[in-house]
């Protein structure tokens, strides 16, 4: 809330979660207070310490009232980054204030998060360039500031290690990007992320990362560091993750990385469109990235279906809509091309040839999303071309499209 804004809940400024207020700020601000008290408590006056602890108590109690599906809230244990912070804050504050109920609440909530993670050693909020870092932040707090009798102390290190393993398998050092799929992403190329400037206030977290850096580095497996700095060569990655209540079944992930290219996708069957965050602009279930010779090109499937069967194999992306029909579309968000500002076909891409087959109508529509105009709106400040394929009216089988690729 900004100082010049009206009171939340007033007639002019109705209360709306993630609108006029963000419940997750309890976790971000609360964990910051805890690090300050742990690392610099000797520099903080007794009066200020008391006020900080009172705020932490209020925040922890406030979090305890949050329940996914109630009053528009989405804080289920599968919402990884705030759930990890919630469990930690409750466990730490409960111990600091000798509140056994608060301590137990944190431990029990942590068990729910851990149970989901242990199914396949993956975060439910999987492969998010933005929020994997927040989850690793919270897991570092689990491992550093809680006592050995806490389940969070026990699992903080192992969950960090498994998460870093997945990151290192999906990180492509040549492209300087995470291979897809991305559960939540605010852009399509980490080398040029305009959304960072829209979230410039988040730079205030830099000192916190610096404070924890030495400890957090001890949680990174030795083999991971090498993978992050040097491409290990062509390899595949398979895994799965699960986000109840949005997933009917676990989401299955297949990714393939080779020199100068990556492909990644996930199969899912969900209650919503747009992933567990219910946001097609950030949910990228099928992604291709490659080195154009000038920059990083991208192709990503814009989510329009609640169920997708997607399979990544070397040089190919195969997508089927099991519940699709003649109203379904396959909409691909495609990077702009510097040498060909006005695109007319796939042939205008730089460095990548795309051959499209399947039972869709192979005559596609092509539109542009620009910062200053175009038929479509930009997504997270990214300009793009939109290749959209339609399903024939007479089709009686699940709609399918295959993209076969080659670098040149």
UniProtKB/TrEMBL annotation:
<protein>
    <submittedName>
        <fullName>Uncharacterized protein</fullName>
    </submittedName>
</protein>
């Amino acid at each position: 809330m900004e100082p010049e804004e009206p009171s939340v809940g007033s007639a002019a400024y109705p209360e709306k979660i993630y609108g006029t207020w963000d419940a997750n700020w309890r976790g971000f601000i609360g964990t910051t207070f805890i690090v300050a008290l742990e690392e610099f408590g000797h520099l903080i006056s007794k009066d200020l310490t008391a006020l900080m602890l009172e705020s932490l108590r209020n925040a922890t109690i406030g979090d305890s009232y949050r329940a996914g599906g109630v009053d528009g809230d989405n804080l289920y244990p599968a919402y990884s980054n705030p759930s990890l912070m919630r469990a930690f804050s409750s466990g730490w504050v409960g111990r600091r204030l000798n509140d056994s109920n608060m301590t137990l609440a944190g431990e029990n909530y942590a068990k729910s998060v851990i149970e989901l993670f242990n199914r396949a050693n993956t975060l439910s909020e999987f492969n998010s360039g933005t929020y994997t870092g927040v989850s690793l932040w919270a897991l570092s707090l689990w491992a550093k500031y809680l006592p050995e009798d806490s389940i969070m102390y026990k699992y903080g290190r192992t969950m960090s290690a498994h998460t870093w393993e997945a990151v290192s398998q999906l990180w492509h050092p040549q492209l300087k990007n995470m291979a897809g799929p991305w559960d939540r992403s605010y852009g399509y190329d980490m080398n040029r992320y305009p959304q960072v400037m829209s979230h410039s206030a988040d730079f205030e977290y830099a000192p916190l990362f610096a404070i924890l850096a030495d400890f957090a580095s001890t949680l990174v497996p030795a083999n991971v560091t090498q993978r992050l700095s040097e491409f290990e060569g062509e390899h595949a990655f398979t895994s799965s993750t699960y986000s109840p209540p949005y997933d009917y079944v676990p989401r299955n992930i297949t990714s393939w990385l080779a020199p100068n290219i990556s492909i990644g996708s996930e199969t899912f069957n969900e209650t919503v469109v747009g992933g567990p965050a219910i946001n097609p602009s950030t949910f990228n279930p099928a992604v291709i990235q490659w080195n154009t010779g000038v920059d990083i090109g991208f192709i990503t499937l814009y989510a329009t279906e609640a169920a997708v069967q997607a399979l990544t194999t070397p040089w190919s992306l195969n997508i089927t809509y099991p519940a699709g029909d003649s109203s379904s579309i396959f909409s691909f968000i495609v990077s702009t091309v510097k040498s060909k500002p006005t695109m007319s076909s796939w042939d205008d891409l730089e460095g990548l040839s795309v051959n499209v087959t399947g039972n869709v109508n192979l005559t596609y529509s092509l539109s542009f999303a620009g910062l200053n105009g175009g038929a479509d709106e930009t997504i997270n400040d990214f300009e793009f071309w939109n290749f959209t394929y339609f399903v024939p009216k007479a089709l009686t089988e699940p709609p399918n499209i295959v993209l076969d690729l080659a670098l040149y």
